[in-house]
Amino acid sequence: MRPRLLAYLTLALGFCALLAAAPEEGKGKGGKGGKGGEPPKGSIDQVAAAKPTPNPAPNFTLTSPVVKEGGNLPAEFTGDGDSASPPLAWSNLPKGTQSLALVIHHLDPEGKTKIYWLMYDIDPKVTTVGKNAADFGKMGMSTVHNRVEYAPPHSKGPGAKKYVLTLFALSAKLDLKNAPAPITSESLLPAMRGKILGTADLTVIYTRPAGASDDEEKKPARKGPSARGE
Fold first, then answer.
1. How confident is the model at residue 225, as a pLDDT?
2. Whose CA is closest to 116, among 216, 226, 225, 200?
3. What secondary structure, in 3-state letters, does the chain show?
4. How far, in whole angstroms, is CA 173 from its chain's centroid?
5. Over pLDDT 90: what percentage of the chain?
6. Domain ranges across the chain
7. What pLDDT, in 10s, does the model give residues 166-216?
8. pLDDT tens readout for residues 119-155
9. How many angstroms separate the CA atoms of 77 and 80, rounded?
10. Are 46 and 107 in contact (CB under 8 A)?
11. How confident is the model at residue 9 (pLDDT cuts 50, 70, 90)?
């Protein structure tokens, strides 16, 4: 074989070996999701996509006495702790608010929007809810356990994960009488279209402790203290 042809063949084989060894673009550890467990580029958070832009009520706020915006969610409110739902408070409701809906959501490494807590038909007179509160509105389906309950953050794998609590102020109570029961985000989000007066977000971070089990406990739905209105 001629030396020049042999050199070309050697280069071609080496290039093919590099392609075979290269990781698939957009995949993270374990072959799923984006780099470092991040959602793939272009992933859409379905709850965030339902919000009007710009927010028509920028002064509408959602807070919690146990965690600040962008802060670390205490383990007590996760699957590694007591699995309690966090206490919340909101203020500066948009004028004309007739109902509220609350959704805790997380964009997972596969780009799927996971729903951890869904509450709707919340009376606008309610402005605070306590720890483990479950009766301040109607509860919908969590897609984490596919159960009507608060699903505590318990995402698999190491690293910090972001969870967003979004409160929707609505101009009318939602007409969900023809929606399949229990209510899911697939029914709730389209029903809110054209009725959103404003939204308020609270973003929290949770990092699983080293050595934590990825097996999510199957706990019964919890009933907590009543919501308190002002």
1. 42
2. 216
3. CCHHHHHHHHHHHHHHHHHHHCCCCCCCHHHCCCHHHCCCCCCCCHHHHCCCCCCCCCCCEEEECCECCCCECCHHHCCCCCCCCCCEEEECCCCCCCEEEEEEEEECCCCCEEEEEEEEEECCCEEEECCCCCCCCEECCECCCCECCCCCCCCCCCCEEEEEEEEEEECCCCCCCCCCCCCCHHHHHHHHCCCEEEEEEEEEEEECCCCCCCCCCCCCCCCCCCCEEC
4. 23
5. 67
6. 48-229
7. 999 999 999 999 999 999 999 999 999 999 999 999 999 999 887 666 555
8. 999 999 999 999 999 999 999 999 998 999 999 998 8
9. 8
10. no
11. very low
- What pLDDT does 41 receive? 86
Q: Please give the CATH topology (third level) of the domain spanning 48-229.
A: Phosphatidylethanolamine-binding Protein (3.90.280)
Residue of 141, 137, 134, 153 lying closest to 82 (CA atoms): 153
Please report where in the chains the tokens 């710009």 appear, as a residue. Answer: 54
Does the pTM exceed 0.90?
no
Both tokens assigned to 14: 């080496």
Could you tell me the CA-to-CA distances from 103 to 25, 29, 62, 211 in Å, in that order? 32, 29, 12, 29
